[in-house]
Design goal:
alpha+beta; Pseudouridine synthase; Archaeosine Trna-guanine Transglycosylase, Chain: A, domain 4; 3 domains; 5-stranded mixed beta sheet; 18 strands
Length: 291
């Protein structure tokens, strides 16, 4: 069985679901899934797991993400990008550098963000975008996200655009960042371009286009531990390998304070994801990978 992760470079115009379908067709398999949905109009890194590695997607999707985006001043749309309906238009000049810098500071760090109406956020079990397309009232609650870095790489006054680099937490909408930056600067704004450059250890420079995937085939599939560097690694005594794989806990002293999931290895082999419990002092398997 083919198991592992693919660092897929999704082109604009392809949905995340279609990207998974592309992987299934190229590799001739059924079991595949993705982490961290990327809008159809956006391009960039989309982690895709195949085989047993699909059980590990939840440990990838929650990692820190990076984006490069273009913001255009002058209009705000209902979707937050240039594919939506214009809800506000302004002929005001582009905000000066001090105003932009002040707006950037207000959106850096831990902030409350309201996702766009046209998003996959669930409202009463239904996606907000599906409700909006049926002209049903949609009220999306704000939520806490973290913007670790928001840098202005370039400004083009003639085009009224900013080029942004953004590092953020899971659940952040870059369309909302662009919208809110415009509001903070006093001029409506929308996102006109987006590429995701990183999801955890999945980096854009090593991602495979659909054409490269077709050429590489199974060689594009990498072992899951390659992309679990953000987790604490723990080497389990080889005598307890069988117990871990059978779902049994192992009594271990001295791991106090190790919160969260651990990537568990034994004899150099990746076994799966474990979690340490202080009472009793034991490491229990959460997701077994090597069966």
């Amino acid at each position: 069985m083919l198991d592992g992760f693919i660092n897929f470079l999704k082109p604009p115009g392809m949905s995340s679901h279609d990207a998974v379908g592309c992987v299934r067709r190229v590799l001739g398999l059924k079991k595949a899934g993705h982490a961290g949905t990327l809008d159809p109009g956006a391009a960039g890194v989309l982690p895709i797991a195949v085989g047993r590695a699909t059980r590990l997607l939840e440990y990838v999707g929650g990692t820190r993400k990076s984006y490069r985006a273009e913001l255009r001043f002058g209009v705000e749309t209902d979707s937050g990008d240039d594919l939506g309906e214009i809800v506000e238009r302004s002929d005001a000049p582009m905000p000066d550098e001090k105003t932009v810098a002040r707006a950037v500071r207000s959106l850096t760090g831990e902030i409350m963000q309201t996702p766009p109406v046209y998003s996959a956020v669930k409202i009463g079990g239904r996606r907000a975008c599906d409700l909006a397309r049926k002209n049903e009232a949609v009220e999306i609650p704000s939520r806490k996200v973290v913007i670790y870095r928001l840098d202005v790489l370039a400004r083009r006054d003639a085009e009224k655009t900013l080029l942004l680099d953004i590092d953020c937490s899971k659940g952040t909408y870059i369309r909302s960042i662009c919208r809110d930056l415009g509001r903070a600067a006093g001029v409506p704004a929308t996102m006109s371009f987006l590429v995701r450059t990183r999801v955890g250890d999945f980096a854009l420079e090593y991602a495979h286009t659909p054409e490269e995937l077709s050429a590489l085939g199974e060689n594009a599939v990498e072992p899951p531990e390659r992309y679990l560097g953000h987790l604490t690694h723990y080497d389990l005594p080889e005598a307890r390998t069988k117990a871990f794989l059978n779902g049994l806990p192992t009594h271990i002293e001295g791991l106090s304070g190790m919160a969260g999931p651990l990537a568990v290895f034994s004899g150099g082999a990746f076994l799966g994801i474990g979690r340490y419990e202080e009472m009793p002092a034991s490491l229990s398997p959460e997701k077994v990978y090597k069966l």
